């Protein structure tokens, strides 16, 4: 003990804030009470010198001292009581337990000796050791939970990485599909535009069959454009569209004249075409100038104007929907309630095609065979 204290005196006299002081079993070799008191005083002195100090001890008062001293922290090396071997895990914040009684029991010390030893221990000492033991048990549970959480975190990180990889693949795949769809749409629109241009050229032809073909091609293009995806547009409530206005069809950019407005839709005249378009897809524009009118009507030059009679003799049944659609629209546009379709008698196929088409048109109120004065079975009279 004297040698131990002599070395400590030398350390105290020579240490400073740059020193590391290691004291093994401080206060041992003498009365535990005095040894503990002396140890606490020595640590206080080392604290005033700001020396970094590590102390090992089995004295319980020193453990309590560290709990109450903000500048001092307890630490312990984990000991496995089951295997009677240290695990070499350093535990910060929790003082170590001596485990003297438990180790003695496992080594075979008689129970009566152990019980007697417990009787000799003070209640305060017993409670403190029990508290330390409980802290170590709780810490072990926390360590198990901590390891489980770390494992779960690793699994989640792996799942996250897999998900991100899959998401990137799906995103690239979808972007590729959208790009292909866009290219296909552009190709279709280019085809429609080319067909319309060809129809316009046919409309300028002097041949009657070319003019009919032009009308048919324009109707086909119109139907395809109506089925194509388009941007969603809306017209504000304060924009009022009525008969006589000039409007632009937002889907196609075509300028047309409003013939009539009914139930949220407008009947439009665009060249030789009569279109039915929702008001939400229209934009009111300024009246067409002279040059624009000539351009808009270029495809109808030389084509017969519709009256209340339509002669379709010589046409095929495939021509019926196209020419009748335009004829009915012209009746509405000119405020005529009755029209006469001259199809002749012949085999009756042309008349049947006319009647079949008229049954599908809601705008046609009724139709009938003409009277003898009107042309008899060679004429169908319609009312709109």
What can you tell me about this protein's structure?
50% of the residues lie in helices and 18% in strands. It has 384 residues and is of the alpha+beta class. Among the domains are: 146 residues, Rossmann fold; 40 residues; 75 residues, Ribosomal Protein S8, Chain: A, domain 1 (2-Layer Sandwich). The protein has a 5-stranded antiparallel beta sheet. Strands 10-11-13-12 form a 4-stranded mixed beta sheet, with helices on one face. The chain has a two-stranded parallel ribbon with strand order 1-2. A hairpin with a 2-residue loop joins strand 7 and strand 8. Helix 2 packs parallel to helix 3 and helix 6 packs antiparallel against helix 7.
Layout of secondary structure:
Layout: H1 2-14, E1 20-24, H2 32-48, E2 52-56, H3 60-68, E3 75-80, E4 85-92, H4 100-107, H5 111-120, H6 123-203, H7 208-227, E5 246-249, E6 255-262, E7 265-270, E8 273-278, E9 282-285, H8 290-296, E10 309-311, H9 320-333, E11 338-342, H10 349-360, E12 366-369, E13 379-383
Parallel strand pairs: 1-2, 10-11
Antiparallel strand pairs: 3-4, 5-6, 5-9, 6-7, 7-8, 11-13, 12-13
Helix pairs in contact: 2-3, 6-7
Q: What fold name goes in the CATH topology slot of the domain at 1-146? A: Rossmann fold
Number of strands: 13
Give the overall shape, derived from the CA principal axes. rod-shaped
Q: What is the H level of CATH, i.e. the homologous superfamily of the domain at 1-146? A: P-loop containing nucleotide triphosphate hydrolases
Query: Low-confidence runs (pLDDT<50, min 5 residues)?
Result: 226-238, 290-306
Rounded average pLDDT: 78
| Helix percent band | 40-55%
The helix-and-strand class reads: alpha+beta
The CATH architecture of the domain at 1-146: 3-Layer(aba) Sandwich
CATH class of the domain at 1-146: Alpha Beta
Percent of residues in β-strands: 15-25%
Number of helices: 10
Which sheet architecture does the biggest sheet show?
Answer: 5 strands, antiparallel
Cross-sheet strand order for the largest sheet: 8-7-6-5-9
Taking the alpha carbons of the first and last residues, their distance comes to 125 Å
Q: What is the oligomer described by this structure?
A: single chain
